[in-house]
Write a structure and sequence with these properties.
globular; 19 strands; 11 helices; 5-stranded parallel β-sheet
Amino acid sequence: MIVLIAGGGIAGLTLALMLHDAGIKARVFEKARSARELGLGINLLPHAVAELDRLGLSSQLEQIGVRTRQLVYKTAVGQDILIQPRGLWAGLSHPQYSIHRGKLHMMLLDAVRSRLGPENVLTDRELVGLDQDSRAISAEFMTHEGAHFLEKGDILIGADGIHSRVRTHFFPDQGHPFWNGVMMWRGAAWARPFEGGDTMLIAGGMDRKLVIYPIAYDPARPSEVLINWVVNVKVAEAGAPPPERNDWSRRATVEKVLRHFENRLSVPEIDIKYLVEAAPAIFEYPMCDRDGLPLWSHGRVTLIGDAAHPMYPVGSNGASQAILDARCLTDKLVQTSDAVAALSMYDAVRRPITSEIVRMNRAGGPERVIDLVQARATRGFRDVHDLVSEEELQQIVGSYQKVSVSHQ
């Protein structure tokens, strides 16, 4: 069996490694001309880390990531709402890692090139067409210079992100991604650690939110950690047309971020102004997702990761769910020699789970605890439990975690 993978991001590369480990031949096609360390911080949850451990990547993760000890939810003035132990500190078998997306991507890419051979990872290959019959799939790729290449395989996997060409092939009228009106500004800066140097902090409320966590250590800078920060501000009504695609991930100024945020959130542990000013670059993104699909698998073609279920970045689940997709899809291909049936079984398992996560993320996901407190604390509070019980807080985050760990 030959599996063609359109997209060389976290989803596509992880799938290639899992398929290779299972004895299935895979080839990855990435539209970017070359691989670079793009992006900023993300989180890998323990259930996803367990899958990378199965691939023998734990030591590399340990070198490039930070084990997250706890997640602290706070109000806009820094009052604690809920403190959750994470990963090993929560008694789980694997850690949660806060990590630079680019370093994770390069780690996976190096592993794919080493194990599958560099000839099975082709850059400057954008999918422009596909055709299938009862025996095979044909995929047409084009370079930036306009050269065309035809590739044949048994199945094609669309791992090409929120603007997926594979998804658009089957759903040409899906329209723009759905924007909830929130703009995100992201950056990272070296600074003194807070809360032990292994804490993720989420503070604010429905209109403004800060997400912050360390993503790297450097022996040459023993008194500092690289701190990833995300500022979320609601700037438009939900459902408004999102910025044009070529405006996503554009550069933003320090002044623009501080104008929206400074003096409207005060967390004693964090010098927000310093972190924004110290970031070498600041990037601006609209917070978008897409509605769930009625079907992912179409004969010899299916979707994975953000191509299948782009979701709001709450709950730290985007990359983790892509990794679970890859595990489920690999397992189904191993279980049966009928590739079309395997893709159908994968669809039946993963699509309902991820559709529910997309729905929950639209409602705030586990971060809904800070929205709830803000809505009820019209005059402030001395004890958060005067506003919401511990049971209610735990139910919000617990129900979300229960759904997000399921993949089989």
